[in-house]
Design a protein that fits this description.
This protein is an alpha+beta fold. The chain contains four helices and six strands, in the order βααβααββββ. About 20% of the residues are buried.
Length: about 160
């Protein structure tokens, strides 16, 4: 079976993971769980998103337990160190912990492209006219403090 690599340009919001976790309360837990589920850690070529996904995979208990769990896990976990030869994988805090990383939540997709195949090399390109509205509705997130509007590029390989 082949592999798909997808790149997507979007507009979204960015917030320190520590800021969003510390804001968890009874009134916003559903919104924050949604943001954690839809968001990515800004990590370029590290493995923070692999660790993050395992931590946030199943947040089903009450908001106080979720908040305590996330604080503990994100302060004590960071990226992975993956040996090039041998395949050994170990947790690693050399590049910091997740608690200090930024979460980016895509809100409005601008354009996306996919590459399919086994071992694809070369370039892909896609475009669209600049005739669309770049505004995003952030009213849903007005109670979440310390967010910034950002342009983001996600690349997913799978």
């Amino acid at each position: 079976m082949g592999k798909c690599e997808t790149s997507t340009a979007s507009i979204g919001i960015k917030i320190l993971l520590s800021d969003i976790i510390l804001q968890i309360d009874e009134t916003n837990i559903d919104l924050i769980k949604e943001m954690l589920d839809e968001g990515f850690i800004e990590d370029e070529n590290e493995y923070f998103n692999e660790v993050y996904t395992k931590i946030t995979d199943d947040l089903t208990v009450n908001y106080l337990d979720i908040k305590e769990y996330l604080i503990n896990e994100c302060k004590n976990k960071g990226s992975y160190f993956k040996q090039r030869f041998g395949g050994d994988v170990s947790e690693n805090l050399d590049d910091g912990c997740l608690f200090d990383k930024e979460l980016i939540v895509p809100l409005k997709e601008i354009l996306t492209t996919c590459r399919w195949g086994y071992d694809r090399y070369g370039a892909n390109c896609i475009s669209r006219p600049i005739d669309f509205d770049l505004s995003v509705n952030i009213a849903k997130y007005k109670e979440i403090k310390n967010t910034k509007i950002v342009f983001l590029l996600t690349q997913i390989s799978g």
